[in-house]
Amino acid sequence: MEPKILIVGAGVSGIAAATKLLENGFSDIIILEAENRVGGRVCSVEFEGRIVDIGAQWVHGEKGNIVYEMVNDLDLLSPSKLPQDPAMMFFLLDGTLANKDITDKLFAIAMGVKDDQVTASKYKGSFADYFSSEYNKRVQEQFSQLDELSLASLVEEWFKKFMVLLNPAEYWDELSTTSHYVFKPCEGDQMLGWRNKGYKTIIDVMTKKIPDPSKQLPIEDKTLLNKEVNKIIWNQDQATIKCSDGSIYEADHVIITVSVNVLKDTYKKMFIPALPEYKINSIQNIPMGTVNKILLKFPNKWWPDTIKDISFLWSEDQREELVKEFPHGPIVNGRSWLENLFSFIAIDSHPNVLLGWINGPTAKLVGLLPDEIVIKGAMYMLRKFAGHLYDIPEPDSILRSRWGSNSHFRGSYVYVNSDMEKRKASAEDLSKPLLSDNGKPVVLFAGEATHRCLFSTVNGAMETGYREADRLITLYNDK
């Protein structure tokens, strides 16, 4: 008889698993999604007449990237109009632009240190210590003037915030020299955009709605929204799944695709019997951080075409003044949340919108702030650093992500830190299925956190969904 398969989560990982199963003859499938929409952390929404992404935004890389490979022949992607690195435009607190020739070289030095795995592997200590030591060594080989070295120090502090955007730790010193290089980026253009249609386009491709709607897979018919799973009983040859609304489902197999932070909060009460220790170790110690977006739409494009981004450089003394000048919003360890709002960029999908990122220890707290405070803080920063050069109007509207404070996500994406390595937590252990007494995989695990080297990416999440679908396909083909 055909097995009953239940998938928890309708993000790209869950949808990937469902589409592959459907294409291979499995039809008794249900997807339970806690939100009122599909997509998970792929979230394309309408904002002031255009589609923007408050989750995943760009396709990062081409070679070996399953997203790129699926859409490459469909003419759906374009290179971003944003300049490629190094192209940061650094503004100083006095409202002037830093010397771009120098900051370009400094940014290139910083990127070179970040990517120098050979040198880093020889360094005993934290990634933070390695970076500061090697960066300053290379800076002093190229620069000697006092003003150049002072600017190098400011760029170093900015780069630390950039690094905890890529690896969303709360603090810079959580990274280690080895953990930083576990992630394996795909080669090619790292900022391929979706031509104003949003990353949600990939869902239409996965479900076959694109390019031929007549061949669309019945994913919508298989998906139940507003279904928050709170109990999985798996000790028999079947699993019983209970939801917060009282509904109950039986299945031969359950594929869990929720975020690792949701598992952190729920695993003790959700699974009966309790999970094995190796699984708990990975759930507890795989870190998932929060990076939130702030999109501001202005009545006019007040920045020139030559300015694609506005990055803020300031000294330690100036940061201390910040708390006094703008005391609104969260302050952690004496530091304002605005320190973690380190840049704004122009985006291709909306000509009058600037996109800023907020990360670090205040990211979740900022998600709880009212829009008015966030707007005031953002405008304080923009006018403080760029208001001397440009007449900056008040924004018409704001759009924000709140991944950290949403109980169905509790974060943005996974990274690797030194504690994870010390405690021997791994994506491999997290991905292992729970087996019944006769060896049948009853509960399977997918999602970006279960990918060994492509965590934090849409393509990584998709690969894990296909992986678990293949596990079941192989099981029944063997039978």
For the biggest β-sheet, the strand order reads 8-2-1-12-24-23
Oligomer: single chain
Average of pLDDT: 93
Q: State the low-pLDDT regions, or none.
A: none
Shape: globular
CATH architecture of the largest domain: Alpha-Beta Complex
Most strands sheet: 6 strands, mixed
Alpha carbon gap, first and last residue? 11 Å
Strand content: 15-25%
CATH class group of the largest domain: Alpha Beta
- The helix count comes to 16
What structural category do the secondary elements indicate?
alpha/beta
CATH topology of the largest domain: Polyamine Oxidase, Chain A, domain 2
Question: What is the count of distinct domains?
Answer: 2
What is the helical fraction, as a range of percent? 25-40%
Summary?
With 479 residues, the chain is of the alpha/beta class. It has 16 helices and 24 strands. The chain folds into two domains: 5-42 and 200-287 and 418-478, FAD/NAD(P)-binding domain (3-Layer(bba) Sandwich); 90-185 and 292-400, Polyamine Oxidase, Chain A, domain 2 (Alpha-Beta Complex), CATH 3.90.660.10.
Structure description:
By secondary structure, the protein is α/β, with parallel strands linked by helices. It folds into two domains: 5-42 and 200-287 and 418-478, FAD/NAD(P)-binding domain; 90-185 and 292-400, Polyamine Oxidase, Chain A, domain 2, CATH 3.90.660.10. 35% of the residues lie in helices and 19% in strands. The chain has 16 helices and 24 strands. The strands form seven sheets. The chain has a six-stranded mixed β-sheet. A hairpin with a 5-residue loop joins strand 9 and strand 10. Helix 3 (100-115) crosses helix 5 (127-142). It is globular. The termini are close together.
